[in-house]
């Protein structure tokens, strides 16, 4: 029998692909031919004239030395609007090193309002800001959105990272599809001159960290590479052994003043035991003995940047990711493969329509395939295509900058698995899979305004509204896909530069969530996959809060203190009545002192998280359990022996207070940990 609906949907999918490619080609042709005739005589230099801050500035305790020039939206078309400045945290290479970070998650420890939840499940660590959970903030690698990435940040070595940019606000339209829930963009390292380093570290629980990295720039071509191996035995009796090897490479080839080609390849391979839970976790989690072996992934991308004229630029990104974790239940001897593959392209066309206006228009195509399903759909194929288009315009009117943006996204379900559920959800395991169906489109929009003085003060307002899809494989208590969330976000903040390297920033925010996805507290055992599944619920909830950040300039040419605090009030709205949402902490604060004198360096960091609670992993009869309410102190220091090959010998102490606390029910922190290490730098480091 002829399936008219299926054929029509296939036709629409191919038509969208054709339109997508045709639009990109049209942009290329227009950049080369049409724009030249219209604008060449009018624009000699259409660089965005909105100055960010004077030469050196800091965001979230991070010193960034910028060239003496303005924001250039043509050269960096994925730059978020200026109105988001108070809500963007940037962690650069120097800060990553001073923190003694080993992984991407480590590097984000002291971001304003940041909370890391550590547990012994498939995703070991979740990172959130401003209470944005379920889904958590999205990840992008070198500006390329990753659909399935939450399992990987813990494993990616910080030694291969050049910068991490965190959009704390729910308004990141340009990078990825779900910026309405926040975004973490990881940029890998690049080198401008010869550099090579060897790292070796050993510490508590038999932990070993090794890493070799290097790169250089030769004429118009630069490259970077790194390889590392990390392992730990974990505390005795906790089933927490881990071992992971990584290989990273990157190139940047500027063919001409108009054309640049960049590429990245990241490979990781290893295994990980899932930490055994302890009371007050549900007994089912305590009895679990599970691991991922092997656990490996390949992440790759190629980027082309084409700038035919000063008033126009085109950026094309091609990406391919392959993740292949195998889950093993050591009690039942059940193994489940959750391999998934995604590939696609992004493009962005930037045009300076007028000296005071820059328009950016782009699109994204993402094809995601999980041959054996993921999470609830393990055992059933998932195959989807996602199409998205975005438009952002910035208009400058003297000291005022206005920006507005719009993103449209729609997903085509080629095969979307029916539930493969046995056990408590057994009656649903034979539901017919979904084939050739278009999901309803999701829409996001934003508007912002900024006022900047001729000095170093800016006042910024940003608003955004949009829809958020539940994470793939999420089900509610009725074993149905939850509804899309609608979110409204408002940001208002000011940033003031202090001297050459300090700053003070004050910001307020409000988030209103309709049909937000939240954990229901209900679980069931999926005997087919050998795991326990968590169910979700739609509910209305709101967050309002304020953030303060102070970064002192370098004092007495010796030390740099910093401090930030986030205060947030969270509410759940039901039947018109509000009650406190105790799942989010009210206060998150961080601070520290970075000290360096001649060959000696010493850095101390502290973090406070107020009490909150959660029923996740707790027995249903026990109700929510207390979490947070801790004050953690970390420090590291070292001495550098100068010579032909500089050698830094150092120590790190994590959780000096050794106070027992948990961020997730049943998975307390491992306590104080001590590490010693050395780093050899074969060339003068580029800072």
Q: What is the approximate shape?
A: globular
Query: Helical segment tally?
Result: 4
Q: Give me the secondary-structure category.
A: mainly beta
Main sheet characteristics: 22 strands, antiparallel, barrel
Q: In which range does the helix fraction lie?
A: under 10%
Topology, number of strands: 34
Average of per-residue pLDDT values: 83
CA-atom Rg in angstroms: 25 Å
Q: Give the CA-CA distance, first to last residue.
A: 67 Å
Strand content: over 45%
Detail the poorly predicted runs: 1-8, 18-69, 418-431
Concise synopsis of the structure shown:
The chain has 687 residues and is mostly beta strands. Helix content is 7%, strand content 55%. A hairpin with a 2-residue loop joins strand 15 (290-309) and strand 16.
How would you characterize this protein structure?
- This protein is mainly beta and 687 residues long.
- It has helices spanning 4-39, 93-98, 104-107, 283-286; strands at 56-59, 62-65, 88-92, 114-118, 125-129, 138-141, 144-146, 161-167, 183-188, 195-203, 207-218, 221-232, 242-254, 259-273, 290-309, 312-329, 335-337, 340-354, 357-370, 382-397, 400-416, 434-438, 442-452, 457-468, 485-498, 502-526, 531-551, 559-574, 577-580, 587-597, 600-614, 625-641, 647-654, 673-681.
- The strands form four sheets. It has a 22-stranded antiparallel beta barrel. It has a five-stranded mixed beta sheet with strand order 3-8-9-6-7.
- The chain is globular and about 60 Å long.
- It starts with a helix and ends in a 6-residue tail after the last strand.
């Amino acid at each position: 029998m002829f399936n008219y609906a299926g054929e029509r949907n296939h036709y629409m999918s191919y038509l969208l692909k054709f339109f997508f490619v045709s639009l990109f080609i049209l942009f290329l042709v227009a950049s080369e031919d049409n724009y030249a005739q219209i604008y060449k005589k009018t624009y000699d230099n259409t660089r965005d004239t909105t100055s960010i801050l004077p030469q050196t500035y800091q965001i979230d305790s991070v010193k960034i030395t910028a060239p003496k020039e303005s924001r250039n939206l043509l050269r960096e078309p994925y730059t978020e609007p200026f109105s988001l400045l108070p809500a963007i945290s940037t962690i650069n290479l120097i800060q990553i090193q001073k923190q003694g970070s080993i992984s991407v998650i480590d590097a984000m420890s002291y971001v304003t309002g940041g909370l890391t939840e550590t547990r012994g499940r498939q995703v070991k660590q979740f990172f959130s800001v401003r209470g944005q959970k379920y889904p958590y903030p999205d990840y992008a690698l070198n500006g390329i959105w990753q659909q399935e990435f939450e399992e990987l940040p813990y494993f990616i070595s910080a030694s291969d990272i050049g910068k991490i940019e965190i959009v704390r606000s729910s308004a990141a339209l340009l990078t990825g599809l779900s910026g309405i829930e926040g975004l973490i963009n990881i940029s890998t390292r690049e080198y401008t001159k010869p550099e090579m380093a060897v790292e070796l570290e050993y510490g508590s629980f038999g932990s070993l960290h090794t890493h070799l990295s290097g790169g250089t720039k030769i004429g118009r071509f630069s490259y970077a590479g790194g390889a590392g191996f990390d392992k730990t035995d974990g505390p005795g009796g906790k089933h927490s052994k881990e071992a992971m090897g990584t290989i990273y490479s990157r190139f940047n080839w500027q063919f001409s003043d108009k054309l640049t080609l960049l590429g990245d390849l990241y490979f990781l391979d290893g295994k990980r035991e899932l930490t055994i839970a302890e009371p007050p976790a549900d007994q089912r989690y305590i009895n679990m003995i599970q691991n991922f072996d092997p656990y490996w992934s390949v992440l790759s991308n190629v980027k082309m940047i084409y700038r035919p004229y000063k008033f126009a630029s085109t950026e094309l990104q091609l990406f391919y990711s392959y993740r292949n974790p195998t889950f093993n239940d050591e009690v039942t001897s059940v193994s489940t493969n959750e391999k998934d593959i995604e590939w696609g392209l992004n493009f962005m066309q930037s045009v300076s329509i007028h000296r005071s206006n820059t328009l950016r228009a782009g699109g994204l195509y993402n094809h995601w395939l999980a041959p054996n399903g993921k999470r609830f759909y393990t055992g059933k194929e998932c195959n989807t295509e996602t199409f998205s288009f975005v438009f952002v315009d910035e208009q400058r009117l003297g000291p005022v900058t206005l920006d507005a943006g719009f993103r449209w996204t729609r997903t085509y379900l080629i095969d979307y698995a029916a539930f493969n559920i046995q056990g408590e959800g057994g009656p649903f395991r034979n539901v017919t899979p979904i084939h050739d169906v278009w999901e309803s489109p999701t829409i996001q929009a934003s508007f912002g305004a900024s006022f900047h003085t001729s000095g170093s003060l800016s006042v910024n307002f940003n608003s955004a509204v949009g829809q958020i899809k539940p994470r793939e494989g999420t089900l509610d208590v009725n074993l149905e896909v939850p509804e899309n969330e609608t979110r409204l976000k408002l940001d208002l903040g000011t940033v003031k530069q202090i001297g050459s390297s300090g700053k003070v920033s004050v910001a307020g925010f409000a988030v209103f969530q309709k049909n937000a996805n939240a954990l229901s507290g209900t679980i069931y055992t999926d005997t087919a996959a050998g795991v326990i599944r968590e169910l979700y619920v739609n509910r209305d909830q709101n967050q309002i809060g304020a953030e303060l950040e102070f970064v002192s300039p370098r004092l007495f040419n010796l030390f740099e203190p910093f401090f930030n605090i986030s205060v947030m009030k969270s509410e759940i709205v039901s039947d018109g009545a509000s009650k406190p949402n105790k799942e989010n902490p009210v206060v998150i604060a961080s601070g520290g002192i970075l000290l360096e004198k001649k060959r000696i360096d010493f850095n101390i960091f502290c973090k406070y998280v107020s009490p909150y609670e959660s029923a996740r992993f707790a027995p249903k009869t026990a109700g929510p359990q207390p979490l947070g309410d801790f004050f953690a102190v970390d420090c590291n220091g070292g001495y550098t022996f100068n010579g032909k090959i500089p050698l830094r010998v150092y120590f790190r102490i994590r959780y000096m207070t050794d106070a027992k606390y948990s961020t997730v029910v049943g998975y307390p922190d491992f306590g104080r940990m001590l590490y010693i290490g050395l780093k050899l730098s074969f060339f003068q480091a580029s800072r």
